[in-house]
Amino acid sequence: MQRYLITLQVPDRSGLVEQIAQHLSRLGGHWLDSELRHIDALFAAIIVIELPQEHWGELVDSLESIDGLTLTGEKLLEIPHDSPVVRISVIGNDRPGFVHQISNLIAAQGINIERFSSNRESASHTGISLFKADLTLSPVNEQSYHALESKLYEMGDDLQLDRLD
After folding, report:
1. Model pTM?
2. CB-based contacts of 152: which residues, under 8 Å, 6+ apart?
3. Cβ contacts of 111 within 8 Å, gap of 6 or more
4. Which of 61, 72, 114, 162 lies at a CB distance of 3.0 to 4.6 Å from 89, suitable for a disulfide?
């Protein structure tokens, strides 16, 4: 079995996940990891699958037969993951450049962003626009985490940071 990363977008409608899963199952594939989102009128997905290598072309053809679907796919390498990982949540008043500030501080510590999921919403008690992000970072030891934490708090008094693990 070969691992692949598939990214796709398609005008949103009910039944899309079932359609994708059906095409994959029919060819003996296995759905391993995914991020699925409804954004405006689009369905967007990042999916890691395992599939017999000889069925890759057939899977791509069958998924591209879904009306309006745009797909990219890549073969993945087996990379062992034994680096220390930390999950954090960051919340602050939304402002231009917020992601750039956060990612710059993380990169300056020599830390990799393995997963980044964010959204913007209104604070329930004030209506102020808040930016929220959940991040998985690696490699992170206690010293590098505390250094990053200090730098993030320097971004402003409105910032809340929670370690999730």
Report:
1. 0.78
2. 90, 102, 105, 159, 161
3. 137, 138, 139, 140, 144, 148
4. 162
* Cross-strand partners of 31: 49
81-104 in b/e burial notation, b at 16+ Cβ within 10 A? eeeeebbbebbbebeeebeebbee
Q: For residue 23, give the nearest of 71, 69, 58 by alpha carbon.
A: 58
Residues in contact with 112: Cβ distance below 8 Å, sequence separation at least 6, in sequence order: 137, 138, 139
Q: How far is CA 92 from CA 84, 98, 123, 160, in A?
A: 26, 9, 10, 6
CATH code for the part of the protein at 86-163: 3.30.70.260
Does the domain at residues 2-75 carry the CATH identifier 2.102.10.10?
no
Domain ranges of the chain: 2-75, 86-163
| 3-state secondary structure (DSSP) of residue 35 | strand
80: its two tokens: 């062992």
